[in-house]
Design a protein that fits this description.
The chain is built from 25 helices and 7 strands. With about 650 residues, the chain is mainly alpha-helical. A 5-stranded mixed β-sheet has the order 2-1-3-7-6, with helices on both faces. It has a two-stranded antiparallel ribbon with strand order 4-5. Helix 2 packs across helix 4 and helix 5 runs antiparallel to helix 6. The longest helix is centred in the C-terminal third of the chain and has 30 residues. It is globular. The termini are far apart. The N terminus is likely disordered.
Length: about 650
């Protein structure tokens, strides 16, 4: 095969790689890929129940109220929103409006988004390379990535955000073919709605798309700049209309924008979901986990309520993050270098190098952001780089395959196989009790394929022998390298995933010990395992809100259990300044809320510390009998405790706010 550097440069307007009509086996392969993805992701999807109750409650609210659907309200009474923009809630809430709210109506759209993302991904890579088989490989790798298998069956906003980011990349690939301002504008629209799905995280791919178009698009620099300016306008319009809507809509007649300090959208963008998140300052949580005097929380329990801590270049390769996204990450980084080296003398407008820039820069920019993010982060955030990892890896395999008759191609293929299978062995070793034989089989097969490819790189090996064996060795080696990721994705799909921090892989046994007993007691209240008597009380209310309780997660669980609106005092972290004590007193006096609920958790005696003279317990802390109320808004809790008498149901104190106060 002629090395690409020896090929004559094509005119810039015709450098797009031609995609020939699909052959029968390619059409069958695409159908198998899409149908297989649909079956795998839809099968028994309701095993996840309500998934993350926080977003499930907002979906329920949106299925009952158009205003709640528009703003992403946590409850149909429209007291406060979730702490993200509402695009994801529009999809799931509208499904609830059409088919009735249920686990299936909420989660099925998420799985269908996976099918759409795989199809867009296949189309983008196939068009860039002119190879439908490479597109099939890229789509399969994406579908078999553990974090993708996890989050496209879940109800967090990450799925729709990544679908829109993938759509933006697809439109950019189309724009690169003929310097199309229209396709680039569509990429801007896709990213505008990605912003309305998860704010700045949805725009992290933007620099990669912009740089790739600026360098690769086959037109003059002036036109490229104008096209980018037009795409920026499209992005601003497609996202800005909602920002303007929140500004023009009277604050008194819409829900409070959770996470903001002043009930404005841009404060949420730049603060809680922007720089504060990046700097690790957005999950302070008020005093919701501050124990009463005389008790001290173990460090392991406190860490369990957050995300993945620590930052640095190894963050993407360790802990739960490593299991979710890093299976092909070393090989993807290597593949990016392989493509750039192989295409170094190609024309500026080379489509394959352009695609490598789109996905490789996406991977590098987002990866740097995740590794430098301060404080905790959930491992599933890395879904945002899932398409970039899969595409960059597929492009590297394509380039090695294209030059498989040369030493460069065989060495590149050997390096990719070894990097993929070697790192899979390391990850499987970390969970060595699960399928202990798998890592050794994958490593052995990959090692043999690698040795065969390297042996074929020497001139002493006959050309005839190399031709016969190289293709087989590449295919076998790549399949072995993908074995670990595939197995972990397969283990992820049938597991039930609920709560705010779902994880991949096989089920893990529950941890024991006093700290974990308290953890379960707290999260039981958050996850909907509330006392049946309390649920029945809420169902029998007739006020606008059945109850008020600290934190959105708790309110969400109560809503799902009782199907009644509940006021979330303080929002997700207990830091939101709503309602104020005067506002709450007004709600009570005007009979808009029936109950105030407070959770009570029995603290282990092992958590007791030496007496601290001079410290007087605050009302409602119950320090004498070791009961802890994880309350963030103490002014409201103290006012209720002073003026009303609780009735206890299990670990819940219920205050009837309709009786005459003390």
């Amino acid at each position: 095969m002629t090395v690409i550097s020896a090929e004559p440069a094509l005119p810039e307007a015709t450098t797009a790689t031609a995609l020939s009509p699909a052959r029968r086996w390619e059409r069958a392969g695409l159908a198998a890929l899409l149908i297989g993805t649909a079956v795998a992701y839809l099968w028994h999807i309701t095993v996840n129940g309500m998934g993350n109750n926080f977003y499930a409650a907002a979906t329920w609210a949106g299925s009952r109220s158009w205003k709640a659907l528009l703003f992403g309200s946590l409850d149909p009474g429209n007291f406060i929103t979730v702490d993200k923009p509402p695009v994801s809630q529009w999809v799931m809430g509208l499904s609830g409006q059409l088919f009735g709210f249920s686990s299936a109506s909420m989660l099925v759209p998420q799985a269908l988004m996976a099918v759409a993302a795989v199809w867009l991904f296949y189309a983008a890579v196939a068009r860039a390379t002119g190879s439908r088989s490479t597109g099939l490989l890229a789509g399969a790798v994406l579908a078999l990535t553990p974090v993708v298998a996890l989050m496209f069956r879940f109800n967090n906003p990450d799925a729709v955000m990544v679908l829109l980011m993938t759509a933006g990349a697809y439109c950019t690939i189309r724009a690169l073919e003929r310097a199309s301002a229209r396709w680039l504008a569509l990429a801007g629209v896709a990213l505008g709605f990605a912003f309305l799905a998860k704010m700045l995280e949805g725009l992290m791919v933007l620099p990669a798309l912009g740089v790739a178009y600026l360098i690769v698009a086959p037109t003059t620099l002036r036109n490229r700049l104008w096209h980018l300016a037009g795409a920026a306008v499209a992005l601003i319009v497609s996202s800005g209309w909602y920002v303007v809507l929140t500004m023009l809509w009277p604050a008194s007649s819409r829900p409070y924008l959770a996470g903001s300090t002043n009930n404005t959208f841009m404060d949420l963008v730049l603060g809680y979901n922007g720089f504060a998140r990046f700097l690790g300052q957005n999950h302070k949580g008020g005093n919701r986990f501050e124990l009463p005097p005389g008790y001290e929380m173990p460090h392991d329990l406190g860490a369990g309520f957050g995300g993945v801590g620590g930052s640095g270049p190894w963050r993407l390769f360790t802990g739960e993050i490593g299991f979710e996204i890093s299976w092909l990450l070393p090989a993807a980084l290597l593949a990016f270098g392989i493509v750039l080296a192989s295409r170094r003398r190609a024309p500026r407008t080379d489509p394959i190098r352009g695609a490598a820039m789109v996905f490789g820069l996406w991977l590098i920019i987002d990866g740097i952001a995740f590794t430098t993010m301060q404080g905790g982060m959930h491992a599933y955030y890395t879904l945002a780089i899932g398409p970039a990892v899969a595409a960059t890896f597929a492009l590297g395999v394509h380039e090695a395959w294209r030059r498989r008759d040369e030493a460069f191609g065989r060495i590149a293929a050997a390096a990719l196989v070894l990097a993929t299978a070697g790192w899979a062995f390391v990850l499987l070793q970390r969970n060595s009790e699960w399928l202990p034989w798998l890592r050794w089989i994958l490593l052995t097969v990959a090692a043999l394929a690698t040795l065969g490819l390297l042996a074929g790189a020497f001139p002493a090996v006959s050309r005839r022998l190399r031709t016969r064996t190289t293709s087989v060795l590449v295919i076998v080696g790549v399949l072995a390298g993908l074995g670990g990721s595939t197995a972990y994705a397969a283990a992820t799909l049938p597991q039930a995933h609920v709560g705010g921090g779902p994880t991949v892989g096989p089920a893990e046994p529950e941890k024991s010990g006093p700290a974990n007993e308290v953890r379960r007691a707290v999260t039981a209240f958050l996850d909907g395992s509330t006392e049946p008597q309390v649920v029945e009380l809420l169902r029998n209310t007739t006020t606008t809100w059945s109850a008020a309780v600290d934190r959105s997660s708790t309110a969400a669980s109560l809503e799902l259990a009782s199907r009644t609106p509940v006021i979330a005092i303080g929002g997700f972290t207990s830091d939101d300044p709503v309602p104020t004590l005067p506002d709450f007193e007004y709600l009570v006096s005007t009979h808009q809320v029936t109950y105030y609920l407070a959770q009570e958790v029995k603290l282990p005696d092992a958590w007791k510390v030496a007496d601290q003279p001079g410290i007087i317990p605050e009302p409602g802390q119950h320090t004498g009998n070791g009961l802890w109320r994880p309350t963030g808004n103490k002014d409201i809790a103290e006012w209720v405790a002073v003026h009303y008498t609780p009735v206890h149901f299990g670990n819940v104190a219920v205050y009837d706010l309709t009786v005459t106060p003390h």
